[in-house]
Amino acid sequence: INEAGGLDVQGVKRPIEFVALDDNSELDSCIRHYDNLMNNEKVDLILPPWGNIANINVAQLANRYQYPILHTSVFSQKIVDLNLPFVFTVTPQPKVMASALVSYLVDSGVKNIAVVYNDDLYSLENYANFKLALNKSKIKIVKDGSISSNGSNTIKIIKDIQQTQPDAFIAFADYYSNLSIVNESKSLKFNPSIFYLGAHSSYPNFAKLIGNNVEGILGMSILSKKNPNAKKFFEDFIGKQGKEADTFFSVSTFASLEILQASVKKVGLNHAALRDYISTNTHKTIMGEVKFSNN
């Protein structure tokens, strides 16, 4: 943007000063940095942090100071249920994704499934939303179980699931659990018709680590690399970052910046005007058309 003269603010180009602060993955530091940026530094715009807990807390802070914020690297229904007028979630959240997954399973003729999950907030919340969506179908869970993040019980659980011969296998688990699931499933020759691993399978390095085992694995994604409209984004990402983009959070993050850039061009930097414009308009993005419904 700066190479093109700056951010277009209602027809006037203004160079961007980008401020990035390290919170050392500490929530208190994260909140303190954002509080200072909004309350003391009075920055024009803010971008979201990384992770569910940080995003949920910063969302409430941004709403208090009436800063419009477009969240991307968060996957928790809790941020939606807060129903905060200045808070927008660009990445589809658990209820939406769970409903889409169940619809896919129904359309695929699935009758019974097996599910594994970690005992953490991310996994349990997503599994809970999935079960709610599943209640509207005739699909039965024939086996489920908690899987350890260190992989210590993976092979036992996969063996137990294998005996039930499910039509589909669903995992709500972390990155390393998913790697363990793939490796143990291969060793046991467990290969159901549908093998779903959630968001982490969209990371390029995940596919590289499991090699040819990637074939047949389904995951959570927003934009296919085969989409002709996405070609430039994925090529530019490699050119700028020197590595491939994932098809989930990277896509929604880019889309959020498209929305913010277009909104500032239209209504300027007034926070209330930005909130109203983002809330009431349909936005053209790399994800397609985006319209917010809870603001």
The coarse silhouette is elongated
The secondary-structure element order is: EEHHEHEHEHEHEHEHEHHHEE
The tally of strands reads 11
Integer-rounded radius of gyration: 21 Å
Helix content: 40-55%
Description:
The chain has 295 residues and is of the alpha/beta class. The chain is 45% helix and 14% strand. It has eleven helices and eleven strands. The protein has helices at residues 27-40, 52-65, 77-81, 94-107, 121-134, 154-164, 175-187, 204-210, 231-241, 249-267, 271-280; strands at residues 7-9, 12-14, 69-71, 87-89, 112-117, 140-146, 168-172, 194-196, 217-218, 283-285, 288-290. The strands form four sheets. The chain has a five-stranded parallel beta sheet. Helix 5 links the parallel strand 5 and strand 6 (140-146). Helix 4 (94-107) crosses helix 5 (121-134). The longest helix has 19 residues, at 249-267. It is elongated. The model has no long low-confidence stretch (mean pLDDT 91).
What key attributes describe this structure?
two-stranded antiparallel sheet, 295 residues, 11 helices, 45% helix, alpha/beta
Short description:
The chain is α/β, with parallel strands linked by helices and 295 residues long. The protein is built from 11 helices and 11 strands.
